[in-house]
Structure formats: C-alpha cells, structure tokens
UniProtKB/TrEMBL annotation, chain A:
The keyword Membrane does not apply. Residues 16-31 have a biased composition (Acidic residues). Pfam families: PPTA. This is Protein farnesyltransferase/geranylgeranyltransferase type-1 subunit alpha. Heterodimer of FNTA and FNTB (farnesyltransferase). Heterodimer of FNTA and PGGT1B (geranylgeranyltransferase). SUPFAM superfamilies: Protein prenylyltransferase (SSF48439). One of its GO terms (molecular function) is CAAX-protein geranylgeranyltransferase activity. It comes from Paramormyrops kingsleyae.
UniProtKB/TrEMBL annotation, chain B:
GO terms for cellular component: protein farnesyltransferase complex. Gene3D superfamilies: 1.50.10.20. One of its GO terms (molecular function) is protein farnesyltransferase activity. Its EC number is 2.5.1.58. Heterodimer of an alpha and a beta subunit. Heterodimer of FNTA and FNTB. It is an enzyme of class 2 (transferase). Its cofactor is Zn(2+). Keywords: Lipid metabolism, Metal-binding, Phosphoprotein, Prenyltransferase, Repeat, Transferase, Zinc. This is Protein farnesyltransferase subunit beta. One of its GO terms (biological process) is cardiac ventricle development. Residues 58-362 form the Prenyltransferase alpha-alpha toroid domain. It comes from the Eukaryota.
Length: 366, 425
C-alpha cells in the first residue's frame, strides 16, 4: 500500500502531505546572517542578548478557532516580535528580527510596516535594503507586501534606475506576473521612463504573441505617449494587430486589442476594415473573426449608416452562428446580443414585442 | 445509456472540437493551455471509466468534515496565512453556509470572541490578534460575523471605530489603501463598501470620488484592473463591480463591454473561467467571474434592458457546474483550482460560491434551478438579493447594523466574496 493510499482516510494528513509536496524543494535562501542555517539555529528565547525581553505569546483566547499549529521556530520569532511591538523598540536587533519574521511569513504586513519604521528610525542603508528586497521578491514574486515594500524603498531613494531591469528579470520567469506589471507601470509613470518601453513590449510579444499582459502594456504606453488620435499611430497599430491576427487567428488578445483601440471611435469608422476582414474570413476564420464582424455591424447600425435591414440581418445571422456553432459556450450571451439588436434596430412592427418570455432552453441545443 | 452520457456537456461527441487551436504557433501560453486541457481530458475519461452512468456528485460529507476541522485546527502549512485568519473564518463559515450546514452555537461564539481579538483599538480588524488593521481581514471578519448573525456577533463590531478606520485609509482621489502605509487597489473599495453598508455607517463623504476612481479602472478590454492602467482581471473586476452596485453607481461603468469581457472568460473546453485573457482556468473564478453575471443582469435590468433572458444567466451554467464537480473536488474533502492542485479553504469557498451561482437563476419574482448531477448537489441559493438591501432602509439610521430577518443567504446583497489578503495573482 502506498503512502498516498494510507493517508487517504486521514484528511488532515493528506493535506499536510499535499501542502508539503508543494513547499518542498525550496532552497533555504540565506541573505542575512547564518542564524537560519538548520545546523546552528538558536531560538530567540535561548539567545542571551535577548534575555532582557519578555516574549509575548499570541492571545488567541481560551477557545481558539482556525488555530494554526505553528512550528516552534515560528512561535518563538513571533513571540519576540510581539514583545518588540509592545515596547515600540527601535533597535538593530529588532530590525534583524523582522527579517526572520518575514522569512517565516512574508505576507505579514504588520511586520513589513514595522520594518519600514525601523529603516527610517535607524537610518538604515536603503541601497542594502533594495538588495534585500530584490532577493525576497525573486523568491516570492506573487506576494503583495514585498512589491509594496520595494516601491517604498525606491520612493525614499528616488532611484528608479534598477527597476526596469529588475522587473524584466522577474517577467522573464513569469511574463504575466500581475504585481510585476503593476510595479512596472508605477515606475514608468512616476519617473517618466517611457522610452524604450514599446520596444520592450514588442520583444515580449515576439516571444509570446498571446501574452495579454504585454498587449495591455502596449496600450498603456501608447495611450500615455502619442495617444491613438494620431492617424499614423492608429494605422500602425491596426496594421500591427492584423499582422498578429494573421499569424495566429485564434489568439484572442490580438482581436481584443484591435477592438479596444477602435471601439471609442466606432469600429465601422475605420476605413476599409470591414472589407479587409471579410476578405480574410476564408483563410483566417475563428469565432473572434465572427464576433468582430458582429461588432462592426452593430456599430454600423448604431451610427445609422447604410442599409439598416441588411446589416441587421447579417448581424443576427452571425449571432446565431456563434450561439449554435462557433462559440456555443457563450450561447446565452450571443442570444442576448441578437435579441438586443433586434429590439433596438429591428423594424418598428417587429420590434413591438421584445421576447421577454423565453422558454427555458434545453440542455442540448441542435 | 447513451443519452445519459451525453446529457453532460463535457462528454458530448463534439466537445473535442473545443480544444485550443494554436494555429501552428507554439508559445508558452498555448503550451500551458494545452497541458491543462490534456489533464482535464484525463480526468474526464477516468470519470467515464469509473462511472457507467455519469452523475456528478458533490462530496458534501467530505467537504463538511474538512471545513469543520479547519475551523478549529490547521496544520503548520497555514503559517503563510497567519496574517489572514479572519479570512479562514470567513471562507469556512461561508462554505458551510452554502452547504446548509449550521455551525453549532458554541463554535460560533468562539469565532465571535476570536474575531473580537482581531479587532483593533483604532478600528477595523487585523489578520490576527495583535496585528494592524487591514481592509481585507476587516471585510472577512465583518462578513463572517454577519453569517453568524447573532446578537453576540453583531455586537463585536465597533461601528464608530470602524468608520474612523475607513476614513483613515481613504485617499483624496477616491481610492482606499488596504491598510495605513499600504497599497491601493480596487479590492479596498469593495472591502470598504461591503463593511460600511452591512454595518450601516455610510456617510455622505465616505465614498466621495470612489465611483469615479473605480470607473477609471475599467480598461480597453472591458474588464477592470487593480489600479488604472492594469490588465483586466476577474478578481479586481468583481470587486469593482460589486462596490459600484453597493454604492448604487453601477451605471457609470460601461456595462456592455464589461459583459462582453466576462462572458469571454469562460473556457470553451474546460467550462470553468479564467482570470484574464489567455490565462488558465481556475476554480476560484467560478465566483469572481461567473458571479459578475448576476450583477450585470440586474444592472442592465435596472437600465431598462428588455432583451435579458428570464431563464438563465449569460454564461454556460451547466458547463461551470461540470467543471467544478468533475475537476475541482478533492475526494478527501475541499475544492481546488484545477486538477493537480492542492485543496485549500479559499478555493473551497469560491468553487462552492460559483457552484451556487450556476445552480440558481432569479431575481425578485423568479427562481429557476439547474442542478447538474445528483439532486443533493443543490447548494443554498445565494445569487440574488432581497431588495431590502437596495432600498433606502440601510441609510436611514446608524443605530444598528442591518439585520436580516430573512435567512442570511437570501438577504445577502451580492456575492460578498472577494480577494484575500494573500495574493492569488
């Protein structure tokens, strides 16, 4: 009988098993001091230089809930952290302890806040802190607190010079890390580091044309620099989008970007786009193509240009095609779009009774 | 027998045609997506082999056991959530609520006392006793107390101090930081709006500028990012939209592009939802994303939209249920992101919440159920509000928190769930 089978009936063990599986294999990162190396670790309660401080156990009350089975190391560090907090101690040893506390739980925002207080009170070297936070983020790039801390340090230093490279390094490991992109946008906007960003975006899109975060960054850069009102810029962007679409017609990001940059102006106002897409339809077909055509038709109807009846008919046909064949997962949505267009743009006689009392649809359609 | 098999969408003949098409262009995104689809295929075919007649079953007993134990004890694997303990209370209590498993009064009372210890002298709640106040555990604590719904629970909340705390994190541009000296993002607006409305402490200035700020988070994709400029993301979109609904300003958003964006987030093969375009399915988006559809339905209805369905939300309810039931359950209890991932209380909470949304359609006068699999899979309906929440009642007096004389699960205004203090990005 395997271990898995043995633990199957013991939920909490299985959870530990699973959870350990996930956290195993992480190297012990040592940036500061070697008090953490397994061989030589000494609890704070046994350190003579801490003997003057009375540790403060956590006050969970007599009947605790969601009680975590902290390791001895965890309890020890946090008992002393609470003691420091209680005394509002602002010392070097307090500063060092925060690193231990962070190592045990980097999501403890109270510890981070305290560390920042100490950084200022002790006038610590912020460049060293930047090196520290760099290492922590590399290790735990999906944590809110570490990025916020980095931002604070960069702000205090007024030194963004390392940021773009650092973030690029994080993105090279996970090109869609939301915190990384957030930090990147903040740095660029705050310190006006727009130069070269569009090139960076293009590089990322060459690596993965489906990277939606990169498409978003593209929009971010352009809308904050040249804007899309410049016809040359718009033409370039439309051209770029269509090129990417042709390379991978099922890449949703390229389609949504194309729509995104044209929707405020009106999809139907971009000269020749409808014709171009209709031509592309046979070789570059996809549900996104069909949906885009619906959107253009809808815009034509909205701006009341051209033959309304004919356009509406085409649009409704495509909605039905999407609902029944090409995009059935969104059947309810496309049906709604069809009904909505019908009621809004349909001939007056037909539009008299919007279809409210829709019978519940069968599970199997078609 | 054939019929029964194909009753489930994921076992239909043409389901394979929904597999991702990479157009011969392989990138990290397409490779990852195909890997997940491969895993799902394995799970589905294993299920078919083991079940002659597919009838997905919600493992109620196992989930309850997992939840009840977690409410008392958690392994040291949970050290990383030591600054999110009110969240653990909330995720567990809400899950039990959905499963219609009442928590004995002794435990509820213990939860009340624990949360009282998490409350800060300066107002708001912290991630644990002795920590600093933060909007996320504040949200979790207040909502957990409202689930308990006893006098003891309501009396834990120091409303005056809570109001002071909210003012202390309010920013001039209408946004809120998550805690003093902390970061801004749209979660905070939702946390603030939720607790303020539940405890009846909304003043005329508390949310000044907030709707405008939230609107600025809506981007070119139609969804909302965490702060203006960022990529549209399910968790943040839920928070933004829900906050706007609570503040009565949902019509300031472009509802139709939002609708298009969220409807597009349902995965055609997996049936579950992704958090962002071109990313992977995850069970928790069953709430953050699917939960937007009832909100949008009501918002559009309020706007006078006549074309709304009277039978269904604008997403594939059956497909989502199948994904959750067949791919997101741990046989030992608890739910999860996707096959291969570990269970946790966060995913348990939001998978169940999403399952409830997918099972119940309705509004003021209508309630239609679509329960996939065993009838016993039916969860408590949580998808739509009593209109008392939207009436002016809650603004009238400050003396007591809004008490619900209807069962809590009917009175909840919205999907109260939201982002955790722990990053899920």
């Amino acid at each position: 009988m395997s271990v898995e089978e043995m633990v199957k009936d013991i939920p909490q063990l299985q959870e530990q098993e699973q959870d350990r599986e996930e956290s195993e294999g992480e190297p012990e990162t040592e940036y500061y001091g070697d008090s953490q190396s397994k061989g030589g670790y000494v609890f704070y309660r046994d350190r003579k230089e801490w003997a003057d401080l009375e540790p403060v156990p956590q006050d969970d009350g007599p009947n605790p809930v969601v009680k975590i089975a902290y390791s001895e190391k965890f309890s020890d560090v946090y008992d002393y952290f609470r003691a420091l907090l209680k005394n509002d101690e602002k010392s070097e040893r307090a500063f060092e302890l925060t690193a231990d506390a962070i190592d045990l739980n980097a999501a403890n925002y109270t510890v981070w806040h305290y560390r920042r207080v100490l950084l200022q009170a002790l006038k610590k070297d912020l460049h060293e802190e930047l090196r520290y936070i760099t290492a922590i983020i590399e290790d735990q790039p999906k944590n809110y607190q570490v990025w916020h801390h980095r931002r604070m340090v960069v702000e205090w230093l007024q030194e963004p010079s390392k940021e773009l490279n650092f973030i690029a390094d994080i993105l090279s490991q996970d090109a869609k890390n939301y915190h990384a992109w957030q930090h990147r946008q903040w740095v660029i906007q705050e310190y006006k580091l727009w130069d070269g960003e569009l090139e960076y975006v293009e590089q990322l899109l060459e690596e993965d044309v489906r990277n939606n975060s990169a498409w978003n960054q593209r929009h971010f850069v352009i809308s904050h620099t040249t804007g899309y009102s410049d016809p040359a810029v718009l033409a370039r962007e439309v051209q770029y989008s269509l090129e990417q679409i042709k390379k991978a017609p099922h890449n949703e990001s390229a389609w949504s970007y194309l729509k995104g940059i044209l929707q405020d102006r009106g999809l139907s106002t971009y000269n020749g786009l409808l014709e171009q897409l209709l031509e592309m339809q046979s070789s570059f077909s996809s549900p996104y193509m069909t949906a885009f055509l619906v959107d253009i038709y809808e815009d034509l109807l909205e701006s009341a240009s051209g033959s309304q009846e004919d356009t509406l008919k085409k649009a409704l046909e495509l909605c039905e095609l999407l609902a029944t064949k090409e995009d059935t997962i969104r059947r309810e949505y496309w049906r709604y779009v069809g009904r909505s267009m019908q009621s809004k743009y349909g001939a007056r006689e037909e539009a008299g009774e919007p279809s409210l009392a829709e019978p519940k649809e069968k599970a199997e359609d078609d | 027998m054939e019929e029964e098999v194909t009753q489930l969408r994921c076992f239909r003949e043409y389901h394979k045609s929904e597999l991702f098409k990479d157009d011969g262009v392989e990138t990290v995104t397409s490779v990852e997506q195909k890997k997940v689809e491969g895993t799902i295929q394995q799970v589905l075919s294993a299920y078919l082999q083991n079940h002659k007649i597919p009838q997905p079953e919600l493992l109620r007993d196992q989930h309850c056991a997992y939840l009840k134990r977690g409410l008392r004890h958690l392994s040291d694997a949970y050290e990383c959530l030591d600054a999110s303990r009110p969240w653990l209370c909330y995720w567990i209590l809400h899950s039990l609520e959905l499963l219609d498993k009442p928590v004995p009064t002794s435990i509820s009372s213990d939860v009340c006392q624990f949360l009282a210890r998490c409350q800060c002298p300066t107002g708001g709640f912290a991630g644990g006793p002795g920590q600093q106040a933060h909007l996320a555990p504040t949200y979790a604590a207040v909502n957990a107390l409202c689930i308990i719904g006893t006098e003891e629970a309501y009396s834990v909340i120091d409303r005056q101090k809570l109001l002071e705390f909210l003012y202390s994190v309010k920013q001039p541009d209408g946004s809120f930081v998550m805690h003093v000296g902390g970061e801004v993002d749209v979660r905070s607006a939702y946390c603030a709006a939720s607790v303020a409305s539940l405890t009846n402490i909304i003043t005329s200035t508390l949310f000044a500028g907030t709707p405008g700020w939230i609107v600025s988070c809506q981007n070119w994709e139609g969804g909302l990012g965490g702060v203006p400029g960022l990529e549209a993301h399910g968790g943040y979109t839920f928070c933004g939209m829900a906050a706007m609904v609570i503040l009565g300003k949902e019509d300031m958003l472009d509802l139709r592009t939002l609708l298009r964006w969220v409807a597009s987030r349902q995965m055609r093969f997996e049936g579950g939802f992704q958090g962002r375009c071109n990313k992977l399915v995850d069970g928790c988006y069953s709430l953050w994303q699917a939960g937007l559809l009832p909100l949008l339905h009501r918002a559009l209805y309020k706007e006078g939209e006549l074309a709304l369905s009277q039978a269904s939300w604008m997403f594939e309810q059956q497909a989502l249920q199948e994904y959750i039931l067949l791919c997101c359950q741990n046989p030992a209890g608890g739910l999860l992101d996707k096959p291969g991932k570990s269970r946790d209380f966060y995913h348990t909470c939001y998978c169940l919440s999403g399952l409830s949304v997918a099972q119940h359609f309705g509004g003021r006068d209508v309630h239609l159920e679509l329960v996939i699999g065993k009838d016993d899979n039916r969860l408590v309906c949580y998808a739509f509000s009593s209109d008392r929440e939207t009436s002016g009642e809650k603004l009238e007096n400050f003396s007591k928190p809004v008490k619900r004389d209807l069962p809590p699960h009917v009175c909840k205004a919205l999907f109260k769930d939201n982002l955790t203090g722990k990053s899920h990005l």
